[in-house]
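User: Show me a protein chain along with its predicted structure.
Assistant: Here is one chain, sequence first, then structure tokens.
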Amino acid sequence: MDEVEVVVAHRQRATLRVGDVFLKVDGDPAHADVEIRAMSLAPVPTPAIRWHRPPVLAIAAVPGRALGVLGEPSPASPAAWAAVGAAVRRLHGAPMPPWPGPGLDDVAAELDRECAWLLDNAVLPDAVIRRNREVAEAALRPWRPAFVHGDLQITHVFVDGDEVTGIIDWSEAGPGDPMSDLATLTLGHEERLDDLLAGYGGGADRDVIRGWWSLRSLVASRWLIGHGFDPAAPGCEFDVLRARM
């Protein structure tokens, strides 16, 4: 019998691996619904769905290995990063899903809310929070919505050599700012941005991507702390924020 591996677990959801199948258990059925629909629409490699019996979604493992992990250098080649950039470009150029995504006002309100919490709780020096709030302003501009993954962490992209073999975890997908995907993918791996954009092509705004690095790190910190993750680990969100100083 295959062993059960706990991939990630917190109060909102858990992901288990049994052999070549991942079991995603989520208390909100809307997340699985979005994931299933998004994977059916995305013009990039995605996992095969084995079955869906709420609250469990079973998907097949994808071949290859993750592009990297936050806090460690990516082992992938520049060509692999360029291939990922080309895949993300295909996604952003595809017809958008028919459900709404977050708007500019929503993003700005969440950013202000999370910055206030960080300041009130002295999670980081005030100067670090305020400087990154200034940098994040570059991301707070009207954008042309595209089909975005919404949570394109480096661990959600798999490659085999220089080929993209799968992109996983689509529960946040929908219309959104394409620069946010590029920023999330290179968060803590700023040195790989040139490789990514070599495959993505024109139209990327580096100032906006930098703004999203700060914005995502500020907004994510409270959630990470509250769910047992450590944004202060080397190379993670707090280091991203300090690097802007």
